[in-house]
Design a protein that fits this description.
The chain is of the alpha+beta class. The strands form seven sheets. A nine-stranded mixed beta sheet has the order 9-8-7-10-11-13-12-14-15, sandwiched between helices. The protein has a six-stranded mixed beta sheet with strand order 1-2-3-4-5-6, with helices on both faces. It is globular. The model has no long low-confidence stretch (mean pLDDT about 90).
Length: about 1000
Amino acid sequence: MVKQVLKGIGKTADVSRLFVVLGYQPDHIATYGGVLVGHWKGFRVVAAAAENPSEAVRQLAAKLAWNSQRGLAVVLARARTLTLAAPRVGRPGTTRTLTVELDNPSRFALEQLERLRPKKSSNALSHALWVAEVLSSEKVTERFFCAFRQIYERMVTAPRSRTTDRERRMLALLSLTRILFLYFVQQKGWLNRDPCYLRTLFDRALQTSSDFHRTKLDPLFFGTLNRPLRQRNQQIDLGTIPYLNGGLFQPHPIERRAGRIHYPNELWRDAFDGLFEKFRFCVREDEEVEAIAPDMLGRVFERLMEGAERQVSGTFYTPESVVKQLVEATIQSALTRRIPHRLAHDVVTGADLTDAEMRTASIALQRLRILDPAVGSGAFLLGALETLTRMRCALLTQRHQDRSRIRRDIMRDNLMGIDINPVAVHLAELRLWLAVVADDPTTEIRRVAPLPNLDGVVRQGDTLLDPLGAARRFIHGIGNAWNDATRSVGTARRSLFDSGGAAQRQDLRRLRRTEIAVARCVLRQAISSVQYAIEDLTAILSGRDLFGDPSGLTRAQADRLKALRSTKRDLVRAQKQVSEGRIPFFSFEIQAPDVIADGGFCAVVGNPPWVRAERLPPPLRHTLQERFSWWRSSGARGYAHLPDLSVAFLQRALELVAPGGTVGLLLPSKVTSAAYGEVARRGLVRETSITIVHRVSERDAGRFGATTYPMGVVVKKELPKPTHTIQLGFTANNSLSQAALNSSGPWILLPNNVREALEELRCSGQPLAEIATPALGVKTGADRIFIGRTAGLDGDFGNVEFADRSVVIESAMLRPALRGRDVRSFQAHPKHVIVWTHAESGAPLNKIPRRAASYLKQHSGKLKSRTDYRAGPFWSLFRVNPALLKNRVVWADIAKHPRAVALDETDANRAIPLNTCYVASAPNRGTALTIAAVFNSCWARALTYAIADEARGGYRRINARVAGQMPVPKPGPQGSALCELSVQAHKGDHVSSTDLDEAVAEALRLSAKARRLLRAVATHHG
């Protein structure tokens, strides 16, 4: 009934019908900026219509609270949604909002609406409390995360054995994820056909005062689920349970090494009561909105990552919509290696195909080999599995569509994932196993197919670095030849996938033997090749020139010889380890030699770690610089000029993909603009065909979790044609000539005609950097000590509230402190003061007044320990000179669009711009006024969008590089008119944005075409 009523809502008055169905009395009275559409006793429902429902509903709920009304606010939006919120009872603020799609409400939304029904025994107050509780309840995902993490952390601290923190975390995760997996299996009816099997098992242990973990879980995991029926101990009666193979249900190497951990019954009771029995589970990710589905495992992994570990590992959760788009685009591009572009597009989009096309496409799909080089929790492997399953099924008749078998074939033949983190490997395997379970239609427990072995599909290892990596720098073709050992690794890997019982153990040993055989061969070849290279250089070193003098080596040759000798030592060390029967490292030439011998992977797709250079240990930074030519400093000093770790993954992905293959990665958007990405950008433009560059939407970027915006990049490993164009976005119609990016500097990712308009803008005046070099404002190095708020000025003294205390300081020592957030267009509103310890010349004062000196002396230790402090008075500040110059133009370093002020034109002309501001000192007043006007125009917004680095929340970094390119109009009548307009704006007179934009355009002499194109960019992105 509720669902039908929702569809019939077209205007605010119609909302009354919904609440009548829910048990309220109808009304229609204008009140509180809306319409009273219903009530129950003293509880009121007020509705309104608005374009921004989330903000409007909170304002409406706040009005109800302000007027001490117990009620519910409802806002109808043109997008056919209904948004609800209520005042919190007994405390300030409003509840979370609930948004209901009128035409297609989710199951969760309908359940929430039903819960808003009044109870006959309630009064207005108790009902208001109930409504607030309903709307404040978190979505199931958040509640599940919190419950899972709570139990997980308790398990981590429970064992008293001699295990490391990392081992305890892995052991806790193993136990929890095994039970979690079985709850999904339980939903299939495969656990003794009992939908409450696991809870019943636990209750039996409690009834007999047994140790649940030892007497029930261990026999279930390691004596039942991992053994065929005929090999089970008949004395262990756990009911009718399927054989699910080893893998998840065999002791993990950490369990063998550290010993099994058994958690007490009390902890398992809380796990069942507070976690597993508290939520519904479903095996398919699209079955129920409010049930726990397998896709949550990726989010559990992302949320469990501790802050410090996440900064080092660079692991971030990738939204499903982004995964789907990038995977489909990468696969479509990869297919064009074997089939025509149009057919590849039709296969991915599900268009109708002829019988001949279906056969051709089917062969191409079966031959695809896809790698995720940093698998994380398996999002991209799952995305590839889903996409390939959908396409493979579409090419088969209904009679042959065995989705479960197709999924297994795809895992065995088409997918591979690598991750250095064993937790990630475990969770990726878990999600792949769940994908197999989800599509298995079997209802007879004894006929359930065992889970596949994923030892050859998801591997723990370092994609970037291995002992053979350095050798690849000097010797091409290592390990890329077909031979018997190469073939045997591929055969053993495929045989292991479906084997079980004793055959599984035999196949696993066979795979290890064949990998060791390949390792011996490859290492022997690598050592021999490196030795030949060393001998060539030593021959030069010992030789003599025409005059009989020693030849010697050039600097480059000497460096090469040193590196070759180091590489040989690493290879010999690895050869010794292999001779002992172990391979303590991962190498594609050894673990996937059949793929390498075939040229490489058809596609590499994923979200590699994003780790800033300063987070990496110095030895690793040095190794990456030696190993990857794209991962090198731009030449300037400092970490800001060293690449993000993802750049190394980009270059490695292109090494691993076959000629004509495709790489699709999510990268930090700064790779396209930052100086550290210059070498990588040049390599991409000149050595690959860039298929797609996609800016991830602000909504998806917010869910991504990183502080930098993600960028999807899809490239083919083939030289670009002169006329090659890049698609700007997965679904956009805009394109860009790749040749247009073949220059130094940031990529301007806009269509060719817009790029031409931007170039016209940049050339329409003199660059700001040539007139007034932008510089960051004053740096204190200790804002909590120097920056505060004035609580009042009294003649010669001021009362300043600092972070930890209130201090009376001489007024002569205080100046307004201007932060970036205080700058508006043509205005400056400093809200803080700074203890100013410098003379007008910029030099630090040798002596400061008594009260200021007494205050700062208390912090002398901290002030002397500041990074930038070298010598002189301990109260010295840094970068003070730009802040003291005349004709200062100031703007925020990070903002959604440029906003500038000519500071000397305002009442804040004595303010000191801090280091969240940039400052440019113009040669005269007129130029300062003109610069400020240009910054505040829509043309500056368009330029900033095109060339500035993105920051989280839709902001841009308007640094010296960006601001330095702002065009300053040449002197002339139009420039004088613009200067006068800027004067008026600084005085507070109303100047419309249209008038300002036109005045700037006239002063810059922009063409009508450029104005039209740039205004569109500023409107959509400003």
